[in-house]
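Appendix B. Worked example

We walk through a single record from start to finish. Start with the input: the chain for DUF5690 family protein, Luteolibacter flavescens, length 399.
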Amino acid sequence: MYAFRRPFAAAGYVDAPLQVAIAGRIIEAKTLFLIAQVFGYCVSKFAGVKVCSELPRARLGLALVACIVTSWLALLAFAVLPAGWKPVALFLNGMPLGVVWGLVVRYLEGRKVSELLLAALSCSYILASGEVKRVGAWLLEKGVDEYWMPFATGAMFVLPFVISVGLLSLLPPPSAEDEMLRAKRQVMGRGERLAFARRFLPGLVILCVFYLFLTAYRDFRDSYQADLFVEMGIMDAAAFSRTERPVAFGVMILLALAFLVKGARRGLATVYLLMMAGMVVLGGSTMLFSAGLIGGETWMMVSGFGAYLTYVPFGSVLFDRIIAATRFTGTAVFAIYLADALGYSGSVGMMIYRDIFAGEISRLEFFRDFSLWLAMGGLPLLFTASVYFLGRAKQAPGM
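Next comes the structure step. The output line below is what the pipeline stores for this chain.
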């Protein structure tokens, strides 16, 4: 999926005849493109609250293929349309991609080995973000036009995607043992979704507020990583792989080890501890970079590890563990998409805020300051949420 979402971020679009002035500040073409795509992604997340929760399992594979074909055609439109229409093409590109994660999670959740499966899935998108931007940068070096590069990158991954969907469709549904250990997972209608929200409202509010800023941070890093490298004097396209591969496999290993923790409540506590540790790593590495004790590439790798150690559980094991610990009958995808919808709203707002209200400082300075504030604010919010949900888990039978 990332081959159809992220390659265009490898280009700068500095010569694009497209700028918008607001309050005397210029919003650059690349920011407009990113906002358009993320806005489509955000709209899709709101739709995914319903679609991913209700879609029958038999139709998941067809829905995945339809999403990718639609997004690929939108990249073709991005290549051929006039400058003023290119943001529209990226909006249409982002819309179908926003539900892909939830559809894949539907195949994997509710199993006794869900931590292992979701850890591998999470590793794939951390790794993919760097790898597809490396492919995009390679195509640019080979002379491919920066507007055709995203479509060309997607063309290289259509067949592998279809094969992967076919393999996913061969997975059997969760067994009776899985349902006993992790609570039964079933589609959630409007009534079930409202019941879940009412039951866990205070904790969900805390998590969603934090996730709004965390998603904005992660998306800023992902979208402007090429620009941050340039500001730090890192010009090698392989830097994307050097920083993201250790992050991906480090996070995957730690989340997979969480599988060894037995008991739903202890497992949930372990996930929260890992997430809080991620914020400590993010803040600590940023302080070391600010003091000149580590270099830019090392900081991107270590801070990325901390940020993703906190970010990845939101889309994978956190809500799966919450449902298992509280014995709520439903699907983790609903909670994941509720948080995602709000999170990507924050991502759009942060990009606009940076260009309009913080345009006098470089992206690198903005990102460094954002890292410190996120770490300091995130720890108390995560601790409060952990106390709330672990308290609710005590009420579940057999805990």
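Two observations about the output. The longest strand covers residues 20-22. The beta strands are 20-22, 25-27.
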